[in-house]
Write a structure and sequence with these properties.
Chain A: One of its GO terms (cellular component) is plasma membrane. The complex is a heterodimer. Chain A is about 55% helix and about 20% strand. In chain A, helix 5 packs antiparallel against helix 6, helix 6 runs parallel beside helix 9 and helix 7 runs parallel beside helix 8. In chain A, the strands form 3 sheets. In chain A, strands 6-8-9-11-10 form a 5-stranded mixed beta sheet. A 4-stranded antiparallel beta sheet of chain A has the order 1-4-3-2, with helices on one face. The two termini of chain B are about 25 Å apart. In chain B, the strands form 4 sheets. A 5-stranded parallel beta sheet of chain B has the order 2-1-3-6-7, with helices on both faces. The chains are: A alpha+beta, B alpha/beta. At the A-B interface, helix 5, helix 6, helix 7 and helix 8 of A face helix 1, helix 7 and helix 8 of B.
């Protein structure tokens, strides 16, 4: 739900509450005021009647629908206090029962006691209720209409810089050299948000650049000393007086350094994929690439007496950077050659929506769930780095593909599913 | 064969210098952009070994200067930066080959000799070692008058041996030469062994000498 819609709804709920409570208070005040006014009128009528009697007007002349004067016999009536009461009487005009207000008082006028009873019709509570509700509901409808209209206008005008900012944020790319362009606004909060986002994205871009620089430099600066050490060892192997044990030591150091170098290369590759430094410009002929890789590794497989079968659907076009695709496919095939048994087999299948590599081999010695983690390897003594499948995983993630592994009937099965 | 080594890492250029000098090359070393451009304009070299990343300039600019001055000089680009666009730019500018650090010295020597062969020997490209003769263009090999039935990989292996004759070749350097650094698993040593066994068999059955010596703990050496 949009922010403004939400705020509008909340405001209307609060307004409804206020109008409800306000309505009750208004209603009560109106009822009270009406009663006060009626009582005042009754009192005034009473005084006028008393004045009339004193002035010698006949009782018949004063008596009417509202005023009933009863002369009382005897002299011992007490002067009563004014006594107001609500009553139901027949309306003199409408001829039906209506609520009335009545004032009855005994008053001694010129030695005669009179009971004077004055009755007046009360405004009906129902009418007052209807009146209040009618007014307030119309007001509320008007308020609702104007609030909704107002929120539409506000979202068009007031929130314009905000929606613009959201648009630019969604199209913001870390790899771009230009920073985030924030829209001009005179609203303080939006200005704060803009400058905050601006500094945040600038920092993210700086960090991204320095990370990228680091991976580039790390690969260059690390490989140079490795190359130096490797060269020294190779020169050392040329020494004529080398005995077998010394040669073994040099060979060991040499292998360790080669390994270090490959780890460096693989880690650099992993972070490059993570940094999304490989951009996809167009589809590549994946079928052709798979065929080439198969031919490349067929010889290695045969040297290990492994049967390599393949079923490649021609013309599969996929949006992936070609060197990444090459690494993906060759890592899968290499993996299948490596974790195989002499005289085993590999079966590779490429269709429009997946690439599947099956191979014979011993069951995995590690938890299959951890197979794609870095430096996980079934065979600790082997020459593999344990990075091949994590690179496969990263490449599939970067391409929005998925990769799965299972082991069944003495068969390893790795499948990459394209989207 | 005269080689200019342009490399800012002193130790590395020393290694290369020592190895190549040992292999019969005449080497000179430049460690900065200006030193290198000075040498290029003053002397002529058969091949320039060029590190792209120099402290005081872009190695690719050096390549441009070189191609303007003397187009007959071969160039082997040397860098850890295995970014594809650098490689493409380098080759477009006229470099002959590209080698990424870290590399094996025998590999470097083989590449240099290949560049040299392509550039210097007009028509006659044959590589000869006693009775063994190889034609890198047609990928044919002979022992005496008898042609050897070699596979592509066996031919490449034999050529690698002869261009690095009398030198110790480790199994890694052979494996990387044959399959590139894609082959990062230890199993590749078995493959190297297989290929060497087959190559030996084919050469001896053609009445050739067995020049491939196993150096225990180290690798192999091609020598008489």
């Amino acid at each position: 739900m949009r922010l403004l819609t939400k705020a509008t709804l909340l405001f209307l709920v609060v307004a409804l509450l206020v109008f409800g409570v306000g309505g009750i208070i208004t209603y009560q005040m109106v009822v009270e005021e009406v009663q006060l006014e009626t009582d005042w009128y009754l009192d005034e009528t009473f005084k006028a009647t008393v004045k009339g009697i004193r002035a010698g007007k006949s009782i018949e002349a004063l008596d009417n629908e509202k005023v009933i004067i009863t002369p009382l016999l005897g002299a011992n009536w007490p002067d009563t206090m004014a006594h107001y009461k609500d009553t139901i009487a027949e309306h003199f005009n409408l001829r039906r029962l209506e609520p009335h207000r009545n004032l009855t008082k005994i008053k001694k006028i010129d030695d005669t006691y009179y009971r004077i009873s004055i009755t007046d019709v009360l405004i009906e509570v129902d009418d007052m209720y209807e009146g209040v509700v009618g007014v307030l509901s119309r007001l509320f409808l008007f308020l609702t209409a104007s609030v909704i209209l107002g929120s539409i206008l506000i979202s068009r005008w007031l929130f314009k810089p905000f929606t613009k900012l959201l648009d630019r944020l969604s199209s913001f790319n870390l790899k771009n050299t230009s920073g985030l362009e924030v829209p001009e606004t005179s609203t303080r909060e939006f200005n704060q948000l803009n400058s905050f986002l601006r500094s945040m994205t600038d920092k993210a871009q700086r960090d991204y650049r320095s990370l990228k620089e680091f991976t580039e430099n790390a690969s260059h600066e690390m490989q140079t000393p490795i190359a130096v050490a490797k060269g020294k060892l190779e020169l050392m192997l040329e020494a004529p007086e080398l005995d077998e044990e010394q040669a073994g030591l040099i060979q060991g150091a040499y292998q360790a350094i080669s390994r270090l170098s490959s780890i460096g290369h693989s880690l650099t590759l992993l972070s490059k994929i993570e940094n999304q430094e490989f951009s996809v410009s167009q589809n590549i002929d994946f079928s052709k690439l798979v065929e080439n890789s198969i031919e490349y590794y067929r010889e290695l497989a045969e040297l290990k007496e492994i049967q390599l079968e393949s079923k490649v659907t021609p013309g599969v076009q996929l949006p992936i950077e070609s060197s990444l695709a090459e690494i993906l496919v060759s890592n899968l095939i290499k993996n299948a050659i490596q974790h195989n048994t002499p005289g085993g087999w590999i079966s590779l299948e490429l269709s429009a929506d997946h690439l599947s590599v099956k191979n014979s081999g011993a069951p995995p010695s590690i938890d299959p769930g951890k197979l794609f983690e870095r430096f996980r390897k079934g065979n600790q003594s082997g020459g593999s780095l344990g990075l091949g499948l994590s690179i496969v995983k990263k490449i599939t993630e970067a391409s929005d593909w998925s990769v799965t592994y299972d082991y069944e009937n003495e068969t390893h099965h790795l499948q990459v599913t394209f989207n | 064969m005269k080689v200019l080594i342009v490399e800012d890492e002193k130790e590395l250029s020393e290694n290369v210098n020592a190895y190549l000098t040992n292999g019969g090359f005449i080497c000179e070393v430049a460690s900065t952009f200006w030193e290198a451009s000075d040498k290029i304009s003053s002397f002529s070299y058969d091949v320039v070994l060029l590190d792209i990343m120099l402290p005081d300039g872009d190695g690719l600019n050096l390549l441009r200067i070189l191609k303007q001055e003397n187009s007959n000089t071969g160039v082997l680009i040397l860098s850890a930066k295995n970014a594809l666009d650098d490689r493409v730019t380098g080759l477009e500018l006229g470099a002959d080959d590209y080698l990424t650090k870290p590399f094996h010295l025998p590999e470097l020597q083989a590449r240099l000799k290949a560049i040299f062969r392509r550039r210097m020997m007009d028509g006659r490209n044959d590589v000869v070692f006693n009775e063994v003769r190889l034609d890198p263009d047609t990928m044919e090999a002979w022992v005496g008058d008898e042609q050897l039935p070699l596979t592509v990989k066996e031919f490449e292996l034999l050529l690698f041996f002869i261009t690095n004759k009398k030198r110790v070749l480790t199994k890694q350097s052979i494996a990387e030469h044959l399959w590139g650094d894609n082959v990062d698993f230890l199993d590749s040593f078995d493959f190297v062994y297989q290929h060497i066994k087959n190559l030996r068999k084919k050469m001896t059955s053609a009445q050739g000498n067995d020049y491939i010596k196993t150096i225990y703990g180290m690798g192999y050496k091609f020598t008489d």
